[in-house]
UniProtKB/TrEMBL annotation:
<feature type="region of interest" description="Disordered">
    <location>
        <begin position="25"/>
        <end position="54"/>
    </location>
</feature>
<feature type="domain" description="Solute-binding protein family 3/N-terminal">
    <location>
        <begin position="61"/>
        <end position="297"/>
    </location>
</feature>
<feature type="compositionally biased region" description="Low complexity">
    <location>
        <begin position="41"/>
        <end position="54"/>
    </location>
</feature>
<dbReference type="Pfam" id="PF00497">
    <property type="entry name" value="SBP_bac_3"/>
</dbReference>
<protein>
    <submittedName>
        <fullName>Amino acid ABC transporter substrate-binding protein, PAAT family (TC 3.A.1.3.-)</fullName>
    </submittedName>
</protein>
<dbReference type="InterPro" id="IPR001638">
    <property type="entry name" value="Solute-binding_3/MltF_N"/>
</dbReference>
<keyword id="KW-0732">Signal</keyword>
Amino acid sequence: MDRRTYVKTGAGVIAGGLFAGCTGGGSGDQSTEADGDGDSGSDSTGTATEAATTESVVPSNVVIGSDIPYRPFEYETTSGELTGFDVDIAEAIFEEQLGVSYEFKPTSFDSIIPSLNNNNFRIIMSAMTINDQRAEQVDFSDPYFTAYQTVIVRDDGEISSKEDLRGNPVGVQKGTTGAGAAEELKEEFDGELDIKSYDQINGAFQALINGQVNAVINDNTVNAGFANDRDDVVFLEGEGVAAESDQEAPPYLTLTIENYGIAFRQDDDEFRERVNEALAAIREDGTYDEIYSEYFDG
């Protein structure tokens, strides 16, 4: 399989300078460490040890595993530039807050957690829902996005309610919570649901257009990105878990409410804490809201 690595232009040069500034005492904590070295007779060995320690907590280049494309979270423009909500959040966290560079490494979603734990990259940013099953294998950042599992259908089709899905073929992406929601629906229908799994969500979307499946179960924002570009695909209407909760419900059927998080290996607590601090900072200074408004309404 073709694997490509996307690197922000010039990020390494810029980030290298900023990272050097941080290790030189840019933060209060690091200044304290430098003072301590001075009291004990600072030497090149001590400086090198401090730099190595800092590097082990926040790498100078953060390699991010991600399933691409997954519009609007990570996808290529027509000119080949990687963009999306997760990409802009990564820029805000790593370049702007932590002063380091980052790169996205495309990885299939159904193998992305094993790849993280095999050290193929440092973290996962891939519109990943926090759930108990995944939390047994990775640790998550604080939540940074709320999503819903939803259903899209052909506008000229015969499915107009959740019950109409019974016995029909539905498309999902392998390893996703959309696939999990489909399995729960199949159980609710006493097995009367034909689940078709695809390596990427675009395969499920194409199957819907071709008539190979009659619905696709997937995240609301990604489904919306596809449906909004077409006149022949709509959300399946109906009340669901969002309407039953205290949250403001979207105007379509919702099967689940989920929170996205950045995934870390379970021995990476210090880096995870630094990322949580940076995530809180971009929420506080308005950067998060600016990025959100670029990709989503409301």
